[in-house]
Write a structure and sequence with these properties.
Layout (H helix, E strand, L loop, with lengths): L3 E2 L5 E2 L12 H6 L2 E4 L2 E2 L5 E12 L2 E12 L3 E5 L6 H8 L7 E6 L3 E4 L13 H10 L8 H13 L15 H13 L5 E5 L7 H15 L5 E5 L3 H7 L2 E6 L1 E7 H4 L6 H4 L13
Parallel strand pairs: 3-13, 7-11, 7-12, 9-10, 10-11
Antiparallel strand pairs: 1-4, 2-3, 5-6, 5-8, 12-13
Helix pairs in contact: 3-4, 3-5, 4-5, 5-6, 6-7
Length: 280
């Protein structure tokens, strides 16, 4: 993995330079400090670079000067309370929303596993067709031999090969997630974005999905950004964690951030409700 530089000292809001964004009473109540632990090496090749991203909806500032980068092969977990801007940030990274300020640079292809699966369960679709559709960029009327092989390899990687000919409407939450993870991986992306992949999945299914994400985490070639409140997933998969609350409030190794008493939203601790991902 890329070399790491030692952690700089903790920075309080009152000591933050203007580029870090102004402090507000609301954000200081939620987490009053900026904490930077061990960050990726500045020299490491980057697959994702977010620089100075800010956006407002009406008078509400949703993101303020958000900057971070993800090196090749790193697994980053993105956490934060409801309304912190996580969903908006993902939409900006995916090119679905344009920021008011700042830039996003992606080096390579992106695979995306959405939290809410946008497909009609009454439509007679199979997992094989869903995966091939992403490979081809449109719905397949027929599937070639090479497309079938690539799709079956992706389904096998996620433990869903036996489901290839099933109907999507008949799959459980965990099985659906396996299919959509295969759909994201079939194009051999350089970056995979996983938006709450264990949501709506039973306990056994969650454990299996975490196992699959841990496999991705062990890769030296695929980088990943995971939005989750699942502590098991963070502990097993995350190399680094970003705590977002309108701006980057903390960024470092999970082992470092887990020790921070004030990061209750990451540790769940006395405020498990703040880990809910139903909002932004």
């Amino acid at each position: 993995m890329p070399s790491e530089r030692p952690p700089p000292p903790r920075v309080h809001d009152r000591d933050v330079p203007p580029s870090a964004g102004p402090s507000t009473a609301k954000s200081s109540r939620r987490y009053s400090e900026l904490y930077f632990g061990t960050l990726p090496s500045e020299d490491a090749p980057r697959v994702l670079e977010v620089t100075g991203v800010s956006i407002s909806f009406g008078k509400r500032r949703v993101l303020e000067d958000v900057s971070f980068h993800v090196p090749v092969g790193e697994f980053l977990c993105l956490c934060g309370p409801n309304g912190a801007g996580k969903s908006t940030l993902l939409k900006i990274i995916l090119g679905l929303v344009a920021p008011d300020e700042g830039t996003v640079k992606i080096n390579g292809k992106v695979g995306y596993v959405p939290q809410r699966k946008g497909f009609d369960r009454d439509f007679p679709a199979t997992p094989l067709e869903v995966v091939v559709a992403n490979l081809r960029g449109r719905w397949p009327v027929s599937i070639s031999k090479s497309e079938r092989e690539l799709a079956m390899d992706a389904l096998e990687r996620t433990g869903a090969k036996k489901l290839a000919g099933a109907q999507m409407r008949d799959l459980s939450g965990g099985e659906t997630q396996r299919v959509f993870l295969a759909r994201a991986l079939v194009t051999k992306p350089n970056l995979v974005i996983l938006d709450e992949p264990t949501a709506g999945v039973d306990v056994g299914g969650r454990a299996a999905i975490v196992d699959l994400m841990a496999e991705i985490s062990a890769s030296d070639t695929i980088a990943a950004v995971l939005v989750t409140h699942n502590l098991q997933a963070i502990a097993r998969c995350a190399e680094r964690v970003i705590y977002l609350d309108r701006k980057v409030r903390a960024w470092g190794l999970w082992s470092e951030l887990a020790r921070e008493r004030e990061l209750a939203a990451i540790q769940a601790g006395d405020h498990p409700d703040r880990m809910s991902m139903d909002g932004d």
